[in-house]
Amino acid sequence: MTSNRDLWSRRRFLTTTGAVTLGGAALNLVGGLPQAHAAGVVSYVDTSKSTYDKLVLMVDDKPFYHSGVQFRYEKHKYTFGWTDAQLKPVLGMIRDDGFTVVNIPIWWSKVETSKDVFDFTDIDRYLAWCGEYGLKLELLWFGHESTGSSMAPRMPAYVMNDYQFVVRSDGTRLVLNGNPLLDKTDPNLLAREKFVLGRLMTHLASADTAHTVVGIQVLNEPNVSKQQGGSSIDRSYSTYSTDRWNSGGYTDATKFRKDVLLNYLTQLGQVIKQSDYSVYTRTNIAGSGDTVPVAENEVLRAQGTSTIDFFGKDPYTTGLDTLYNYGRDAVWAQGKNFPMIMENFGGTPAADVEKFNGIAGNTAFNLYAALDPDSSTGSSNHGLYDFNPTTKVVTRKAVSDKVARLNHVLNKIHRDLASKLPVERGGTNLQTFNRSATASTTTTKPVGGVDITFTTSSGAQALAVRRGAAEFALTTTTQATFTLPGTTGVVRSVEAGRYDANDNWVKAGTKTYSTVSGNTAIDLAAGECVRVLYLVSGATYKLRHSSSGQYLDTDLNGAVLLAAKSTYDDQDWIVAQDSSGSWTIKNARTGRNYLETVSSNNGVIWNSGTISASSLWTLEGVATGGLRVNNNQTGRAYLYRTSAGEVKWNTGTQDTSTVWVFEAK
Q1: Counting Cβ atoms within 10 Å, is residue 46 exposed (0-12), middle (13-18) or buried (19+)?
Q2: Under DSSP, is residue 56 helix (H, G, I), strand (E, B) or coil?
Q3: How many Cβ atoms are within 10 Å of 449's Cβ, its own excluded?
Q4: Are 221 and 289 in contact (CB under 8 A)?
Q5: 124, 212, 579, 605: which one has the fewest Cβ atoms less than 10 Å from its Cβ?
Q6: Mean pLDDT, the chain, as a whole number?
Q7: Are the CB atoms for 345 and 367 separated by under 8 Å?
Q8: How far apart are alpha carbons 368 and 366 in whole angstroms?
Q9: pLDDT for the residue numbered 38
Q10: CA-CA distance, 523 to 508, in Å (whole number)?
Q11: What count of other Cβ atoms lies within 10 Å of the Cβ of residue 248?
C-alpha cells in the first residue's frame, strides 16, 4: 500500500481561498505564496499506519530515525563571543557520538539584518558544516519571541519599533529583564514574519540540494501573554487583542490564548509547507507555557488544514517512568501528534538511560544541549560536554561516552526504530530490555511471537527486532546474552554487523553461538549487533561448501557435484520441512528432484521424486557458522566434500568438510 504523506490534504488546504475558523478567530491561510509541488517535499510525517504500525518521520521518502541534540551556535557566538574555529569541532563531536540530527537555532536578525536586507551566511555555514560531518539539520526558528520574551538582538531593529507589544489592562508592557513580548494578535507582525520566513525557505530550496535540513521548529517555547520566569496576564489588552476578543465572542481567556497561538503558528507553518522546500514542522512547549493547543491542532488536522505536524514538550526531568510514558501521554501522543521530547537534560549522569526510556516508550528524543551556553562554569546538567569558560576548550565528561555508546547501538537498527512500534506500546516486532539499567537481571519478552530471554550482569540496555519471518536483530549497550527458543527453527547463520543507511545488512564477521537445551544462546559484547537468520521452509537457497567455496550443483543422470557459483537453476535448491521436522532438499531444475544418499560408494544423487529416509535430512546449526546436513537413513550421516572434490556422505565425522552455508536466493 502507498504511504499517506498527507500531501493531498496539504495541497487541498493550500489552494483553499477561504478562511478556516478556529474558535472565534478566522484564519486566512492562503496569503500570496506559490503553491507547493511534490518535488519540493523533503520530509513529512506518515500518519497513515498503512505501511508501518506507527507514526513515522519520512525523509526523502524513507523512514528517518531521529536522534537529536541541540547546539546553541548562535548564543555561543553572538552572546558569549565564541569563534567559528572554536565552535565547528563541536559538530564533529556530535557526529562522532552518533547523533543523526543536530538542532540549531537561527535568529530572525541573522536572516534579515535590517529591513529588506537579507543575509544567509549563517544558514550556509550550518549547511556546509552539517554536510561535512554527515549530519541532518533541524532549524529552530527563533522569530519574534522565544520563551515569552522578544529579545532585541534576535530581530532586526525595526521589528521592535514597528509592531505591537503585549500590554496589561492599564497599558503597561509585560517585561522581563528588560525584554517585552510582541503581540501575536498584531496582523502586521504576522505578515512580516511570514514574509521573512518565506525568504528563508526560498533560499533553502536553492541552496540545500542535499536535503540537509529535514525539519523546522516554529518558534521556541512560545507564549501568548506570559514570560517564562516572569509575569503573566490572562491576555494582552492591546487594541488588536481586544478587537479579536470581542469579534470572536470570547469569554474564556485560556481558549483565546490557544486560538491566538495556534493561528500564529499555523500561518508560519503554511509558509514552510507551501514553499519549494517543504519539511516537517514542530513546535516545542515549555512545561510552564501558558497554552498547549495540541487538541485544537488535531481538529485542524482532521479538517486537512493543519500546518504544524506535531507539538512536543520540553519536560526536563530525570524521571524514567515519565520519559517512558511520554509516548502514550494523553496530550503529547493524542491523535496523530508524533511523540517527540524536544528538549531534555543532556548532561545528567544517567542521560543515556533517560534517552533509552524515551525510545522504549515510542518517543523521539532530543538532548539539550551539546554545550550549556549559560553555564558560568562550563559544566551543568544541560550540557553533554564541558567547556572552559575562559579558553573555550571543550572536553568530554563521563556521560557523553555512555550517550555515544547508546547512540551507536541504536544506529545499527535505525530503520527499525524509525518504523516499528515497541511491543509495550502495542507493536509486535520491536522489544526493549532493562530500561531501568538494573545491574543484574534476566527477563523473557515476546518479539514477533517468539519469547526471547535477555540476561545481563553489566546493566546492559538492549533491543531485539523481528525483521521478517526468518530474521532477527539483537543489540546491546554492554555485555549481555540473548537466548532464542529452539522451536523458532533451524539457525542458518549468526553474524555481527549493522544495517546501513539503506537498511541493508553489513557483515562484520561470523558470530559464534551455543546450543543450550535445544535453544540458541548468543553472547553479545558491549555495543554489538547481531543478525540471526533461520531457514525458511519452501524457500530457495544455494548450498555453498564452507571451506572450499564451491556450490552444490547437479548434472544429468542424477549426478550431484561441486562447482563454481553460477546463475543457473541447477545450483538452486528448494528446502522444505515436513511434519516430522525433517527436511527435503529439492533441485529447482525441472525434472530433477530430491537430494538422496545411495549405498553404493557413499554416493549422493538427485532422485526422480521419491521421499524416504534416504532423501530426508536433519539440518544442524554449527556454532561457528553454517549448517551440517545429516541424512536420516540409518548408518548414513553427514553430507561432505572429499579431498578429491566429490560429494559424499560419511558415517558421523564432524569437521570443516561437513559444513555448508545456505545462501538465500
Answers
A1: buried
A2: strand
A3: 9
A4: yes
A5: 579
A6: 94
A7: yes
A8: 7
A9: 58
A10: 16
A11: 18
Does residue 242 have a pLDDT over 70? Answer: yes
pLDDT tens profile 253-295? 999 999 999 999 999 999 999 999 999 999 999 988 899 999 9
User: Which residue carries 496539504 as its cell?
Assistant: 10
Which of 25, 98, 111, 100 has its CA nearest to residue 63? 100
Given phi > 0 = left and psi -120 to 50 = alpha, else beta, which region is 515?
A: beta
- Per-residue pLDDT for 475 more than 50? yes
The conformation of residue 404, written as its DSSP 8-state character, comes to H
Enumerate long-range contacts of 594-597, CB under 8 Å, 24 or more apart. Answer: 595/552, 595/560, 595/639, 597/631, 597/633, 597/636, 597/649
The Cα angle at residue 496 between residues 493 and 502, in degrees rounded to 5: 95
pTM check: above 0.85: yes
Residue type at 395? Answer: T
288-315 pLDDT, tens per residue? 889 999 999 999 999 999 999 999 999 9
Q: Tell me which residue has cell 545429516.
A: 630
Where would I find the H helices in 274-375?
Answer: 294-303, 320-325, 351-360
Cα 177 vs. chain centroid, distance in angstroms? 39
The DSSP secondary-structure symbol of 166 reads: P
Read off the pLDDT of each residue in 121-129 and give the average, rounded to a whole number: 98
Residues comprising the chain, all counted: 665
The pLDDT assigned to 36 comes to 36
Q: Distance between CA 222 and CA 183 in Å, rounded? A: 11
**Backbone torsions φ then ψ of 287, nearest 5 degrees:** -60, -25
In angstroms, the CA 30 to CA 23 distance is 19
**CB contact at 8 A, 456 and 481:** yes
Cell of 96: 562522532
- For the ranges 18-22, 56-60, 369-373, which has the lowest average pLDDT? 18-22
Residues 6+ apart with CB under 8 A from 254: 291
Handedness of CA 91, 96, 97, 102 (dihedral sign): positive
Nearest to 304 by CA among 25, 4, 2: 4
The pLDDT, as a whole number, for residue 35 is 36
What CA–CA distance (Å, rounded) separates 345 from 659?
Answer: 52
C-alpha cell at 85: 574555529
108 torsion bin: left (phi>0), alpha (psi -120 to 50), beta (else): alpha
Residues 105, 71: contact at Cβ < 8 Å?
no
Q: How far apart are CA 4 and CA 9, in angstroms?
A: 10
* Cis preceding linkage at 19, omega within 30: no
Cα–Cα distance measured from residue 113 to residue 90, given in angstroms and rounded to the nearest whole number: 26
* pLDDT confidence of residue 30: 37
